C-alpha cells in the first residue's frame, strides 16, 4: 500500500519538500501548515487557539470566509 502525498487545497501543490500538512477544521481539506514559527515553511492557513481543545487549524480560504467584524 502506498500513501499518496497530500495535495494542498489552497495552492494545489503536493510539495515533497513540505512535510507539514494539517486538515482544516472547517472544510476538512488538507493544506500546508508549518508548525514551527522559527523555521522556514509554507503556510496556507493558520492555527487558532480554541477555548478548550487546543488548536484549531483553518485553511486560508476558511480564514477569509469566517472573518467576522469585531
Ligand atoms: Zn499550500
Ligand atoms: Zn478550510
How does this structure look, described?
- The chain is mainly beta and about 70 residues long.
- The protein has one domain: Herpes Virus-1 (2-Layer Sandwich).
- It is about 10% helix and about 25% strand.
- It has one helix spanning about 60-65, and strands at about 20-25, 30, 45-50, 55-60.
- It has a two-stranded antiparallel ribbon with strand order 1-2. The protein has a two-stranded antiparallel sheet with strand order 3-4.
- The site of one zinc ion has 8 residues, from β4 and α1.
Concise synopsis of the structure shown:
This protein has one helix at residues 60-65, and strands spanning 21-23, 30-32, 45-49, 55-59. It is mainly beta.
Key features?
70 residues, globular, two-stranded antiparallel sheet, two-stranded antiparallel ribbon, 1 helix, binds zinc ion, 9% helix, mainly beta, Herpes Virus-1
Topology (SSEs and partners):
Elements: E1 21-23, E2 30-32, E3 45-49, E4 55-59, H1 60-65
Antiparallel strand pairs: 1-2, 3-4
Bound molecules: zinc ion (2 copies).
* CATH class category name: Alpha Beta
Rounded radius of gyration (Å): 13 Å
Beta fraction:
15-25%
Using the 3D structure, state the CATH architecture: 2-Layer Sandwich
CATH T-level fold name = Herpes Virus-1
- Distance between the terminal alpha carbons, to the nearest Å? 48 Å
Q: How would you state the average pLDDT, rounded? A: 84
Q: What's the order of the H and E elements?
A: EEEEH
Which distinct ligands sit in these coordinates? zinc ion
The shape, in one word, is: globular
What is the total domain count?
1
Q: From the helix content, strand content and strand pairing, which structural class follows?
A: mainly beta
* Fraction of helical residues: under 10%
Quaternary state reads single chain
Q: How are strands sequenced across the largest beta sheet?
A: 1-2
Please, how many helices? 1
Count of extended strands: 4
Poorly predicted regions are: none
Largest sheet: 2 strands, antiparallel
